[in-house]
Design a protein that fits this description.
It holds the Pfam family RUBY_RBDX. The protein is built from five helices and 16 strands. It is of the alpha+beta class.
């Protein structure tokens, strides 16, 4: 049976003999992954039973109370939140009961996509999977991209000050694995991937929904701890397909169906 590894930072689950070189969701290295030993219990079919969600790995437990320990990722019951199929509103009591678990659950509702961020350094190219890409302003046209400092692409962006974003389609989940589960330090990720060279010299996936090229504003670059937040002015961009872009929620749903 394939081993399962959980990211200690974001809860991402990886299947394979070894943990990934880089987490495709939050960008941390393999040392932040731990091996899962237990299988999740199958929920009962009782409609009246309460449903509890683990805010670390999304495991669903059915019962009157949350489990003492999550059978999937091992966290305690304080990381579980009660799910409801009914529309509910906030109360003063719920505001007062905010904790680490409810905060994580709230953050999970923020929608974001999965992109290939690429750059160049000394005529060498590299790309990685990233989810933290956002438009900041229309005039000037400006975006923000957050990359883990351990990643090779981060090194390239810091050196060249340029980057490109390839927006993936829903049927390109394999690109997440290709660019997110291996390091450019040991493999040229673009060897087998058709790409075009943009105005700034960065590689752009030839097969994508859209692309954006941007120049980093050094005076607006922010050190946010494990990551660097790059603020950049958009230089070029174009839509190539009208198909739906890949989101992290869709990616997770497809992974769960495959299990």
């Amino acid at each position: 049976m394939m081993k399962k590894w959980v990211c200690n930072v974001c809860g991402y689950i990886h299947e394979g003999e070894q943990p990934p070189d880089v987490c495709p969701v939050c960008g941390v290295g393999p040392e932040e992954f731990r091996l899962l030993e237990d299988k999740p219990e199958k929920p009962t079919s009782a409609k009246s039973a309460k449903r509890w969600k683990c805010t670390v790995c999304d495991y669903i437990h059915v019962g009157d109370a949350p489990p003492d320990v999550c059978p999937l990722c091992g966290v305690g019951k304080e990381y579980f939140v009660l799910l409801s199929d009914e529309i509910a509103s906030l109360t003063r009591e719920s505001l007062a009961n905010s904790n680490a678990a409810t905060v994580r659950s709230a953050l999970d509702t923020i929608s974001y996509g999965l992109y290939i961020v690429s750059s160049i350094k000394d005529n060498k190219i590299n790309g990685q999977c990233a989810n933290t890409v956002a438009q900041l302003t229309i005039e000037p046209c400006r975006i923000a991209v957050c990359l883990n400092k351990r990643n090779l692409t981060h090194e390239y962006v810091m050196a060249s000050g340029v980057l490109a974003i390839s927006v993936l389609r829903e049927d390109q989940i394999d690109m997440v694995r290709h660019f997110g589960f291996q390091s450019g330090r040991t493999k040229d990720k673009f060897t087998e991937i058709p790409y075009l060279t943009g105005r700034l010299g960065c590689p752009i996936l030839q097969d994508c929904v859209a692309y954006i090229e941007a120049k980093v504003l050094p005076d607006k670059t922010v050190d946010v701890g494990t990551h660097t937040l790059f603020v950049a002015d958009v230089i070029a961009g174009q839509v190539a397909s009208k198909l739906a872009p890949l989101t992290y929620r869709f990616y997770q749903e497809q992974k769960n169906k495959a299990k």
